[in-house]
Amino acid sequence: MGQGAKFTVANGTNYPLKKVQHESGSYQMNNWNFPETIMPKNSQTVYIEWDESIFHNSDDDQATVVYKLQTGDSSDNLTFKLNAIANPFRIVASANFDTQTQPANTKIDLGWLHNGVMSFGLVGNKDGFIATGFNAASWMENNLALIGSKKLSEISIPGSHDSGMSVIDSSTEFSHDCNTKTQTQDIAHQLNFGTRYFDIRPVIGGGQYYTGHYSHINISIYKGWQGSRGQSISDIITQINAFTNDNKELIVLNLSHAYDTDAGNSNYPPFNADQWNGLLKELSGLKNLYVAKKDETSDFASMTVNDLIANSSKVLVIVDSDIDGINFGANFFPQTSLDPDNDYSDTNDFSEMSNDQLNKMVTQKGIGKYFLLSWTLTQSDLEALCFLDPTDEISSVLDLASEADQNLFSTLFPKITTDSFANIIYTDNVSSSNSALMAMYTNYILSRY
């Protein structure tokens, strides 16, 4: 017996992956059985387990598997390998060829997730590969040859849910990390991990603009609002400006769920026009706001990436409010300008969520919708009371996010087709470039490479 985990190899290339038998093997591993072949645009998941029995020194546990890309050219010798290394337990990947942002033989430490699901993905073809762990800060600019002429409706980008909630500040009585914190990385880090669509939920607190995560509770024993503030809007502006100064990327800020928390938590009213206009005035401090051209019809889903970021980064600010009196001007845009179909599953069960979202992906893309795949799990009412659990066994928002993220490559990857894909891959706890890699795989599929 020993620690075990599932491991997914996602083959997002044009080529079959063939296990090289004479370079494969293990020592003191209870399970290390990878498939002989992994076909293009497919993924395979195996169970791996270390040997921690009393008759063995687990520090000696080790294993290697090597896959060769069957390109059809006998002169090619493109391989990657996975190494199981003990003390501490971890899986390390490396390729003998360059990938985007990673030189040949770069060691990619995948760590270890006991009882979890780990993954390694390889995307692309001989013209260029992208692998797990790539630097996603400039993924759009680096791939303009592929996506530049595509409309936004024809590409995939990563998005984050409740993007500003990596910090918890000024909480109400029943709001805690376990039921309010949706992210562990601030906007700056999410940008560097490749996120390009941000769910910004502005609130007024202490007379200032912040992000927030609040819910109205209406039960017999309590009626009112519970939640917390997150990052300040001023902090987010500073981080975005620093990012766009060094990168040429498209960034979308979707503003919704706007409440005045200074009104008292028995009633948090939605923003009025003056409060919206105050927020937009502050957001005018963003240096690379997209400016609408005269008489331009703002349907961003029908615009190409080159239309939007031909010369520099651009920030699109979308306001989800239909009240009168909002001064949009040339820099801010109503929800109709980029309005994805967004219908989350409202469940804490991964199978139920993934089936629901994948079915919606097929249906909504089938009728031409701009589609947001909400790869998020929602706490049950009991789980939302996790701060009362002395055993700490009830799943927090971040626990549920981890489960969803770990299964991204095993579950979503095989379902992507030219007719069924996500325009926005929307997740909690953006803490790696995995969603960006999934988006780039989708973009390769859509290019019919």
Structure explained in plain terms:
With 449 residues, this protein is an alpha/beta fold. The protein has two domains: 4-134, Mutm (Fpg) Protein, Chain: A, domain 2 (Sandwich); 140-446, TIM Barrel, CATH 3.20.20.190. The chain has helices at 139-142, 144-147, 177-180, 187-192, 233-246, 273-283, 305-309, 350-366, 397-406, 408-412, 434-446; strands at 4-13, 17-19, 25-27, 29-32, 37-38, 42-50, 62-69, 79-85, 90-95, 108-109, 117-125, 128-131, 157-160, 197-200, 202-205, 208-219, 222-232, 250-255, 259-260, 314-319, 332-334, 372-374, 424-427. The strands form four sheets. Strands 2, 3, 5, 7, 8, 9 and 10 form a seven-stranded antiparallel sheet that branches. Strands 21-20-18-14-13-23-22 form a seven-stranded parallel sheet. A hairpin with a 2-residue loop joins strand 15 (202-205) and strand 16 (208-219). It is globular. The mean pLDDT is 94.
CATH level-two architecture of the largest domain: Alpha-Beta Barrel
What do we call the CATH topology of the largest domain? TIM Barrel
- Which secondary-structure class do the elements indicate? alpha/beta
Measured on Cα atoms, how large is the radius of gyration?
23 Å
CATH class of the largest domain: Alpha Beta
Return the domain count.
2
- Give the CATH superfamily of the largest domain: Phosphatidylinositol (PI) phosphodiesterase
Sheet with most strands: 7 strands, antiparallel
The helix content is: 10-25%
DSSP, total strands: 23
Determine the oligomeric state from the structure.
Answer: single chain
Low-confidence stretches: none
- Overall average residue pLDDT: 94
Number of helices: 11
Percent of residues in beta strands?
25-35%
Separation, N- and C-terminal Cα atoms: 44 Å
**Which outline best applies?**
globular
